[in-house]
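It is worth pausing here to work through a concrete case rather than discussing structure prediction in the abstract. The textbook approach is simple: state the sequence, then state the predicted structure, then interpret. We follow exactly that order.
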Amino acid sequence: MRKPILPGATIGILGGGQLGRMMAMAARSLGYRVQVMDPDPSCPARFVVDSCFEGSWSDAKAASNLARGCDVVTLEIEQISPESLLAAQSYAPVRPGPALMGIVQDRLKQKAWLAGHALPVGRYAAVRSLPELKMAVETLGPNIFLKSAHGGYDGRSQERLTGSSNKEVEAAWTSLGEQPCVAEQGLALRMEISVMVARSPSGEIRVFPSARNHHENQILVWSVLPSSISDELELRAQDLARSIAEGLALEGLVAVEMFVTETGDLLINELAPRPHNSYHASERACSTSQFEQAIRAVCDLPLGEVDIVRPAAIANLLGDLWQEHEPRWDRALAIPGVHLHLYEKHQPRKGRKMGHLSSTGSTPEQAVERVLEALAQL
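Step two, the predicted structure:
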């Protein structure tokens, strides 16, 4: 029988960005010590952890140094190299583990795994050369999202094709570095949702209610819990998320991004084996936040309840807001139910996530209305 890793132990986190920071804050509330590894010695988590190891995602030595003093290691970003994961695993359990990460880190492997397990995905093609991309355009049509097999998030390492001319196709292939890609057929969408699922090493599973997400330029603008989809669709979405967690033998969290099409189909977009931007509202909406649940899961503690206590929404704060002057936080905080969450990133840049606003409401619609009103006040 597995023994839980109890408070007082040390947790290592590969990555010290905002997700690592918020996981660390949850861990400290539970009584754990926390260490992180990050390329930036002044990363957001630096100010809330016991120690910070500087190292790139491919720095196996730094990963070893982190894990050597930890009872368990987890992560907040998918880009950790297989060598670093294995190096850390030689000193402490790594959750989620290298085998799962090997599937999720490569979009081609991820799509093949989903399709191979009879899980619903949109039409796609594996692209490893320019001729294969041209064939994909002929097969899938000119409306295509082209995504690099490795890396990329928030619209990075992606190109949108809306025509089939050789010039446009070749430009997209060149823009992505002529590297393996996934070509996904564009879909007529009703909405985008996500479902967060936690699974402990002992096999306990908790599935959060689905979140509804609104993106602009492939970056999440706002998200709300609950999503208010139909009971039938909610059940299908939760069943899919649960089956993925079980099939991957997950230890930790995985966010399952899904599309709801105009025809009512539910299709899986991508998997993220970590806390997710769309579940920041869980801190205010749910009995247990995604960050505390992540700590419970990797430490093999009993998982927390995930029922909705009160609807809540979040809106991302991008570096664009700082271009002309410091945002007017006082005006945003004057809106009832609104809270401010800043990540202590020192250099605002266009498109960079610097923080988020959150708001509760008596309904999901009111929560979204309040958080967007607060955003407009900035």
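Step three, interpretation. The longest strand covers residues 189-199. The two ends are 53 Å apart (CA to CA).
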